[in-house]
Fold:
Amino acid sequence: MTREEGRGKREECIPVAALLLAAATAANLYAQGPQLSPEVRQYVSVDTPLVAITHVKLIDGTGAPAAPDQTVVIANGKIQVVGAAATVKPPAGARVMDLTGHMLIPGLIGMHDHTFYLTYGVERPIQSNYSYPRLYLGSGVTTIRTTGSMSPYAEINIKAEIDRGDSPGPHMYVTGPYIIGPKPDPRLEPFGALRAATPEAARRAVAYWAEEGATWIKVYASISRAQLAAVVDEAHQHGMKVTGHLCAVGYREAVALGIDHLEHTLFANSEYDPQKQPDVCPPTYRSAMTNLDIGGEPVRATFRDLVSRGVGMTSTLAVYECTVPGRPTRHAHVLEAFSPEMQREDSVRFATVSQGKVASYWPAVFKKTMDYEVAFVKAGGLLVAGVDPAWCITAGRGDQREFELLVEAGFTPVQAVQIMTANGAKVLGILDRVGTVTAGKNADLAVIRGDLTARAADIENVTLVFKDGVGFDAVRLVEAAKGQVGLR
Ligand SMILES: [Zn+2]
Structure:
């Protein structure tokens, strides 16, 4: 059953008039946004209902080439007009912002954007309710899917606070706790992952979190075929979707079982390991990847299955870069966000990696994954991206690093923007509302000083972020999170 069919089933007893009224009210709220609290107001720099951004270079997220000297008019939270500055005149009464020397892109859609940080080595999750929403929004990320929750109620509470206008932050699609099983997972169980001993246990958990407001379920490495099948069936009955960081189940098996999405692209696909046994995560699967032929039949077979079933994958290059010796895996802007304790821990991580005290396959697997992602898109695959804030990279700043790495992998800046905006919206089912700079859509936008087509690293210079047409001072948001990751 599809998500839409699931929703229809749940709503069939509600009168049509009530549904229409509810839809109209929801649409209005989305366009106008909630009353913003003083806590949120302190970050707002543009709050007039009519704004004309002029002389900006635009990458609109559709895959169309970058267009110089554009004007974009925002009215009541929506994009009203997009066109050449020479022909589109700002309407009377609009606040005109001449953004010569800047770029405009759709707000980023972070598709693996947790609300916690996971330390390297000890792998301790640190819930970051205060710092992360500010870092995400201040880095140009206007929508996140949390893709695995260590503290599901904390996440549901943050989303509610943001939606009420009490806290700044992105639109959120929250996930239930990680579902694993039946084998024990000593890494995740202490932090609240649900080990489903039976398929029935998996169903109970999915049904519970559907009622609590989760819209996605994340399954993790030890999940077996029987448990995954139960999760997928139950989730679809509740109108939810399922994504996974897999290992015991290969991607082709998971697609056949109806999974909606896959995390980490090649990094988590064990099916190319000749040692692979059913329902077992082979310890050799990453070293086996070093010899993988990206153009070979096994990879093409995976891509055919994913493309024909419309199953996308999330690129998370930024987090895996943390384990590759010699990579630039220390970023001033990430260290700034860390508390002193976290900075100390990161020094240990950095020393370990730079001395090469990591598995020797990492450099080759990192490069293979880049090639795998490029080949997947060439094969017609739906690639999205997220930060997976962990190991050395944080919320928001990591999404920006992800953009740089996609360009390094071989995508054009226009493709990388599309992957990080429209494609994410497509997977979330909200492409009709956000994800591209198109008249009629919600004004979720990021303004960047510089030119992404000339220098990918300019993505780090986000100056202004529109969410529902309200303009947030990006620098002030990031400043507020300084030194806070690890504390709150
Ligand atoms: Zn993750």
In short: Residues 1-30 have pLDDT under 50 and may be disordered. The chain is about 35% helix and 20% strand. Residues 16-32 form the longest helix (17 residues).
